[in-house]
Amino acid sequence: MLHILFPVAFSPQCDRMAPLVASVARRFQSRVTLMHVLELSPLASDFAVMQEHFQTLSEELQGRLKAFHATDFEGIETDHVFKLGQAAHEIVNFAHSQKADLIMMPTHGFTRFRQLLLGSVTSAVLHDARCPVWTTAHAEEAPETGGQFRSVVCAVDLSLSSSSIVEWAEYFAHRFEAELHVVHAGKANGVPGVAKPVELIDPTHVGRSVAVAAERHQADLLVIGRGRIQGVLGRLRSNAHDIIRMSPCPVLSV
Q1: Is 95 inside any structural domain?
Q2: Could you give the maximum distance between any two Cα atoms of the chain, in Å?
Q3: What is the extent of the structural domain holding 190?
Q4: Helix, strand or coil for residue 77?
Q5: Which of 54, 139, 178, 224 has the fewest CB atoms lying closer than 10 Å?
Q6: Are residues 126 and 46 both part of a single domain?
Q7: What is the pLDDT of residues 102-118, one digit of tens each?
Q8: Are strands 31-38 and 151-156 parallel, antiparallel or unpaired?
């Protein structure tokens, strides 16, 4: 994993996630791109009026980006990218054009409503990104892991992509020397292409069942598939959306 993209919104959630991004980058010896997108209000239709202020604002934001958790990223090959536009669009386009191997980003961070919806930027990136996306919807309540991962849970369905999802989970578990648990919400005795023993969990409510399994195994990371459904649903399946919202730990969506 050579390149991690970390979108920075200068939010408390990004502050909490920065040490984790740095820890993962060090473990995999990855280059990190810290990216900030300045979104102008649709009401500011007359850009000429704002032009004299924009240069100062952009310089200030670029300075903040270069200084963002500089101590955490010390010794890591780090790029700083500043964009003007729609955040999700710019993040996804950059990830595709620069061949990012992983996008790491928090959700919006409103604890009371986390189980109702994800942030709009996070949802759009999950829908459209072709590379895996690491999200931390749990970050407001969960304790810091200190970059240590001892338990990885991988949730699979009966799709043909299950084996590749397990491969990603095995990859992370191996690099962090973590124990891996594979779970499936169903009654099947086996999952196509998956040789590792699979633990069956209650299929009645997949999101809740996967969250319970992650808690039972004290998971530090949950690995799931986002699917490859085309059209208005993009790549994010409804079960994946539920799992991400309810997970007690970071979720790697492949």
Answers
A1: yes
A2: 65
A3: 151-253
A4: coil
A5: 54
A6: yes
A7: 999 987 644 444 444 46
A8: unpaired
